[in-house]
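Module 6 notes. Inverse folding takes a fixed backbone as the condition and produces residue identities as the prediction. Think of it as a translation problem where the source language is geometry and the target language is the twenty amino acids. Below is one complete input and output pair. Work through it position by position during the lab.
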């Protein structure tokens, strides 16, 4: 059962306010910290591997999360975080690793190179390289490479979908694992022409810019996809998901869509964690979708008890909203 809100009120709100008052350094140092407080995350999980090198270089390391109680090999979720292809750190998403591990998955979160060090498609090759590590090693950490699921948020949702749609990235690293399904949160799938600097910087040099767009790569061979977005997302508008979902349906691909009314860009990924899970059922929706495609063929996955809405901490609501506003303000829109 999650250890929700066992932290003292003063310490909890103090951690929130520390994130609010450090906007200049927030993303790298503290803005995600409230979601990773031990008392605000799911129990019954363990980080079974930390800073494991999957290739040479500081940005080529990964973490592995798993349920504390492990028997037979568990399904694997390879989660790719977002950050506009220019920022992000795997440690910031520990709450995602523990959330999915609490439901019975072995979870891998890998860093990858970002702009300005690299541009498209190098970050996709990095994730493919990390998947090569998964294929070779994940059984040693309790994961079943034959039950592989991809997930991602924002730019990470784009990366996950591209790996599923364009087999050339995985072939480059001899990855032969089958992707059972993909869960993509707040993802950009159809954003050409490149109208904003952040996107032009990363994709503007591509020799075939339309070939960078997931919507142009859909075939009937694509794996099933779960697409979720907030209806008021100012970074990647929900119409982006609608267009991509329709293309998948037209191609005969199984697609499930969820539109979370009144929520923006960061809220869907934050709601995976125990601290904000009361806001929307993203975790339940994602796990149920993966279950449809073989995550737990012998039974029902462990269901963690979601925390109640924090009526007992009304002072925490406003600071949390300020944190999310800061997160959203860090990004340019990806598509018009």
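Target side of the pair, the amino acids:
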């Amino acid at each position: 059962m999650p250890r929700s809100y066992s932290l003292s009120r003063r310490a909890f709100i103090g951690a929130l306010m520390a994130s609010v008052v450090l906007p200049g350094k927030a993303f790298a140092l503290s803005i995600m910290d409230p979601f990773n407080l031990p008392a605000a995350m799911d129990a019954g999980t363990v980080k079974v591997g930390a800073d494991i090198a999957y290739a040479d270089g500081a940005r080529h390391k990964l973490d592995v999360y798993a349920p504390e109680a492990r028997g037979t090999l568990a399904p694997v979720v390879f989660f790719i975080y977002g950050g506009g292809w220019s920022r992000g750190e795997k440690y910031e998403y520990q709450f995602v690793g523990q959330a999915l591990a609490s439901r019975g998955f072995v979870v891998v979160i890998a860093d990858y190179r970002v702009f300005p060090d690299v541009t498209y498609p190098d970050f996709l090759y990095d994730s493919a390289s990390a998947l090569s590590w998964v294929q070779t090693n994940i059984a040693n950490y309790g994961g079943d490479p034959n039950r592989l699921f991809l997930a991602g948020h924002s730019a990470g949702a784009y990366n996950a979908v591209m790996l599923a749609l364009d087999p050339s990235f995985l072939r480059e690293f001899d990855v032969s694992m089958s992707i059972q399904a993909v869960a993509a949160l707040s993802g950009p799938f159809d954003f050409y022409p490149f109208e904003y600097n952040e996107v032009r910087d990363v994709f503007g040099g591509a020799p075939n810019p339309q070939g960078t767009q997931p919507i142009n790569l859909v075939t009937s061979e694509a794996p099933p996809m779960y697409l979720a977005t907030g209806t008021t997302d100012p970074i990647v508008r929900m119409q982006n998901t609608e267009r991509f979902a329709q293309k998948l349906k037209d191609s005969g691909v199984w697609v499930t869509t969820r539109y979370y009314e009144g929520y923006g860009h960061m809220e869907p990924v934050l709601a995976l964690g125990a601290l904000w899970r009361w806001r929307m059922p993203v975790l339940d929706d994602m796990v149920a979708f993966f279950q449809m495609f073989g995550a737990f063929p012998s039974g029902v996955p462990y269901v963690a008890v979601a925390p109640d809405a924090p009526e007992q901490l009304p002072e925490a609501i406003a600071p949390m909203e300020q944190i999310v506003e800061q997160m959203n303000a860090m990004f340019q829109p990806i598509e018009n």
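Reference fact for the lab report: The first strand starts at residue 45 and ends at 53.
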